[in-house]
Write a structure and sequence with these properties.
This protein has 221 residues and is an alpha+beta fold. 48% of the residues lie in helices and 25% in strands. It has helices spanning 3-12, 16-19, 23-32, 86-94, 115-124, 126-152, 155-169, 180-187, 191-203, and strands at 34-38, 43-45, 53-67, 73-80, 101-114, 175-176, 207-210, 213-216. It is elongated, with a radius of gyration of 20 Å.
Length: 221
């Protein structure tokens, strides 16, 4: 087995549906998969573009977001290790334009399949079809939670939850290395508003801000 096929198998192995496929279908996926490396800042899809391929991500982070007429952005979700972009899958199946923008936030590696083949596989194979449906259901739950937050939760509450979640996810205890602009993009707000709330958090002893890093105090974890 050459290194390319090994990489394909490593990435496919992250997706439980692959082990449930027949040997012949597994071979189809390996044969038609193309390994792709995506650098930080690379465009995965632009809004309005046709979806000619779909990716299964092996590592990295692709941010999917909407951009308003004012230029303000809001993150819909991130596609990370062991995931696929369900908007891409939806557009591939419906043969419709991509309704958002997707950009690589952290250097990514993925395997890519042509759209026409993927459509055929979904139509032919119950295992792949169930993978798409379950991925859609899981992602919709997250998007509905986002809508609920935007509609009903105050921004300071959402920012506190964001800081708590990021702190738990980071390997550097309690240190979040993000700019105010990056946080604003994630929460669909303006940098000035985020800066103002963070300054208030700092005044109240909730956080410390040190050279591009935000430290959440223990009692607020």
């Amino acid at each position: 087995m050459d290194s390319i096929d090994k990489t394909k198998l490593e990435i496919l192995g992250l997706f439980p549906f692959f082990s449930n496929l027949s040997d012949s279908f597994q071979r189809k996926l390996i044969k038609h998969a193309e390994v792709a490396s995506l650098p930080i800042g690379a465009s995965y899809f632009e809004e309005g573009h046709s979806c000619s391929q779909i990716a299964l991500v092996g590592k990295g982070d692709i941010r999917v977001f909407k951009r308003g007429e004012s230029g303000r952005e809001i993150t819909l979700y991130h596609v990370e290790r062991g995931e696929t972009c369900i908007l891409t899958a939806s557009c591939v199946l419906a043969q419709s334009p991509y309704p958002a923008t997707a950009v690589v936030d952290r250097e990514a590696q993925a395997i890519i399949f042509p759209a026409d083949l993927f459509r055929d596989w979904v139509a032919q194979n119950e295992v792949i079809r169930q993978f798409v449906f379950s991925s859609l259901a899981n992602r919709m739950e997250g998007v509905l939670s986002l809508i609920e937050e935007l509609t009903f939760r105050k921004l300071d509450q959402r920012l506190m939850q964001f800081l708590q979640d990021k702190t738990k996810a980071t390997s550097q205890k309690q240190s979040i290395k993000m700019t105010h602009e990056e946080i604003a993009v994630e929460l669909g707000s303006a940098r000035e508003v985020i800066s103002r709330i963070l300054k208030d958090f700092e005044r109240r002893g909730i956080i410390q801000q040190n050279r591009g890093a935000i430290v959440l105090q223990d009692q607020f974890l």
